[in-house]
Amino acid sequence: MSAVVDLIDAPNDRDYASTLSLCCSAHCILNVYAARGCSPLELTPSQSLDVEKVLRAILDASKICGGTRYVAAAIVLAAGKGDLGSNNVVQGHVGADGDHVKERLVAPARDWVNAFLWPFWSAYQHADPLASQRSQRHACPQIGSRTKKLAVWPDNRPSTLREEVLMRDNYQCVLKGVMDNDTCRTGRITTTGVGFRRVVATRIIRRSLFPKNDSSPLSQISAKIDILQYFAGLSGEAMDELAASIDTPENVITLNRDWHDEFDRFEWCLVPHGVDLSRIHDVFDPDLDELPELSGQQHYKFVALEPLDCNTVSNPSDKVTFVNHALPAERTFKFPNPKLLAIHAAIAHVLHFSGAGDVFSHITT
């Protein structure tokens, strides 16, 4: 996969390596080859995934977090269509190598499912009885250029983190405004007619995705981190900074238990308001699909991908805003990191549109 890294790092002024050209070619390849039937991606003897659906879902959802260039390049190179002017791709003529191309397209789908989607999905589940068995059966090679591990974080978690994010978010669920019952009992706050329940400090990205000790094989850690870095459109330095924020308020939002559980099941997500989801299945257009720069007060769209549990009563407002409610005399806590929320939202869309979330659920049950 080093060829993918070389291509996405190429100067943008080279037409063959422009993001628009790569994305157009990737869509053509999927329309011409994958749509005519690839071998199913078998995860267990009874559970498999459609390769075309996996590749399309990852290509589409990559718009949410800035990884379109990486995903498109991987599809183009996997198909052996590095010549973007090829009539085989642009005009849609399959040719004699059609079966070979379809076979080659299975490889990136397998890598992304085994080394990225499965670790992400299982990290958010409360029980993961098959994780160690699957990681042994489906160990993936290092696919990128990272040559060292990220720093290893200690297992102890900051004891003040929940209190810090509660202060920032006004001691309430950011979606429904329900107040934290523990804080209400202490008399520090009073309810204002919205009710109270246990409010959970919910990590946007699970800390278990990053190494805490040396027990995980280097190849598995490297593959997962490399894919995450390029899927999120991050430099190596930015990736390390993101990983270092896992135990800070930047990676935490406050939710009541029902919303927390559904967030962990990727049934809903928060998407930056500048992302146009009506275009998610279209070819990437740099003029319309570049991610917005966010600063100060942050606004997000609430997106439900699955029917929500009746205990959540009703969907929140389509618009969710993060505001720092900490008093001026107290510390100013950072808002949730937009990139972390975008990564969660993109993964949620991939799991939903590819069918991988349902298949993973069947595997673990």
User: What is the CA-CA span between the terminal residues?
Assistant: 33 Å
Number of distinct helices? 15
General form? elongated
Count of distinct strands = 9
Domain HNH nuclease: 240-270
InterPro entries: HNH_nuc
Protein name: HNH nuclease domain-containing protein
Pfam family, one: HNH_2
Summarize the structure.
The chain has 365 residues and is mainly alpha-helical.
SSE blueprint:
Layout: H1 2-8, H2 19-32, E1 41-44, E2 47-49, H3 51-65, H4 68-78, H5 87-90, H6 98-123, H7 131-137, H8 161-168, E3 179-180, H9 181-185, E4 196-197, E5 199-203, H10 218-231, H11 236-244, E6 252-256, H12 257-264, E7 268-272, H13 286-289, E8 298-304, E9 319-322, H14 338-354, H15 356-364
Parallel strand pairs: 3-4
Antiparallel strand pairs: 1-2, 5-6, 7-8, 8-9
Helix pairs in contact: 1-4, 2-3, 2-4, 3-4, 3-6, 3-14, 6-10
What distinguishing features does this structure have?
single chain; 365 residues; mainly alpha; three-stranded antiparallel sheet; two-stranded antiparallel ribbon; 15 helices; elongated
Written account of the structure:
The chain is mainly α and 365 residues long. It has a domain at 2-137. It is 43% helix and 10% strand. It contains 15 helices and 9 strands. The chain has helices at 2-8, 19-32, 51-65, 68-78, 87-90, 98-123, 131-137, 161-168, 181-185, 218-231, 236-244, 257-264, 286-289, 338-354, 356-364, and strands at 41-44, 47-49, 179-180, 196-197, 199-203, 252-256, 268-272, 298-304, 319-322. Strands 7-8-9 form a 3-stranded antiparallel β-sheet. The protein has a two-stranded antiparallel ribbon with strand order 1-2. It has a two-stranded parallel sheet with strand order 3-4. Strand 1 (41-44) and strand 2 (47-49) form a beta hairpin. Helix 1 (2-8) crosses helix 4 and helix 2 (19-32) runs antiparallel to helix 3 (51-65). The longest helix has 26 residues, at 98-123. It starts with a helix and ends with a helix. Mean pLDDT is 77; it is low at 11-16, 84-94 and 127-154.
